[in-house]
Specification:
The protein has helices at 2-6, 17-22, 24-32, 60-78, 96-102, 121-131, 153-168, 176-180, and strands at residues 12-15, 36-39, 84-85, 106-107, 112-113, 138-139. With 187 residues, the chain is mainly alpha-helical. It has two domains: 1-109, Alpha-Beta Barrel (TIM Barrel); 110-174, no CATH class.
């Protein structure tokens, strides 16, 4: 966040409820700095058995509960109602649409995802800079699921290359809501 402030860059942080509960001061700092907070479920559960992941959700109601818990925690701890939802892994599994409608959330995906959980900073930057386009949404991670103290050094290093190079190309940065709802009164 310090580097984003230095570069005068606004961003959207999709937060897991567990992380907001564990570190509410960080979520409040994100909001206070003028960034946007979106809903990224309570626990970032693994969702796709066809990819070999344990299926944590058994019903539409359990999917709703994941998003509803995060929504309430963000409201309680930060004082804002998230308006955006991003499903873990970008998967639109059974029940997400129902949860999205019940909670009045807008679903968001990305134009490019930086693979920052597995790649080096130069590789992350190369991919993002190659795939970035006007109106695009870049997905990078300020954590790893709900892990405590994740190593995000490669992502941070990649930002120091990505932001100046995109600015040099004439790009500007804004929150997802500012991008997709330009006439709305959002932060």
């Amino acid at each position: 966040m310090d580097y984003l402030a230095l570069q005068d860059v606004s961003a959207t942080f999709f937060q897991c409820g567990v992380n907001v509960l564990r570190l509410p001061e960080i979520a409040r700092r994100i909001n206070d700095a003028g960034h946007e907070i979106g809903n990224h479920t309570f626990s970032h559960a693994r969702l796709c058995p066809r990819l070999g992941w344990k299926m944590n959700f058994r019903s539409v109601e359990s999917v709703y509960s994941e998003f509803a818990q995060a929504q309430q925690i963000i409201l309680d701890e930060v004082g804002v109602k998230a308006s955006l939802l991003r499903a873990p892994y970008g998967l639109r599994w059974f029940g997400v649409g129902t949860a999205q409608k019940r909670l009045d959330l807008i679903g968001v995906m990305w134009t490019v995802i930086g693979h920052d959980w597995e790649w080096s900073a130069p590789d992350i930057a190369r991919l993002v800079l190659t795939k970035a386009n006007p109106g695009g949404i870049v997905c990078l991670h300020d954590g790893r699921d709900i892990q405590q103290n994740p190593d995000i050094s490669e992502m941070l290093a990649s930002l120091r290359e990505i932001i100046p190079r995109l600015k040099d190309k004439g790009y500007s940065f804004e929150t997802v809501s500012q991008l997709i709802l330009p006439d709305a009164d959002v932060v």
